[in-house]
Amino acid sequence: MGALYGGIVTVALAYAVFIYGIARIGAATAVTVGLMEPLTASILGVVLLGETVSAIGIVGSVLILAGLVVVSRPPKEPAQLVA
Hints:
This protein is an all-alpha fold and 83 residues long. It is built from three helices and no strands. The model has no long low-confidence stretch (mean pLDDT 87).
């Protein structure tokens, strides 16, 4: 019973902190940080655990970085229509 209670309390606490964080930094920033999670996990796996990175892992990392660049750019001004 203690494990069940501990699991429910920790999940509820994590969820509450997650929602608080999104409310504080905004959804767009939270999504950008979320995009970095797989890349961060891969880097930590290589550095801390000595894992190797395959060619597909490098391609995936480049695609993640490209996606981060795209979503981090400021929006363009809309084109003005000439009447």
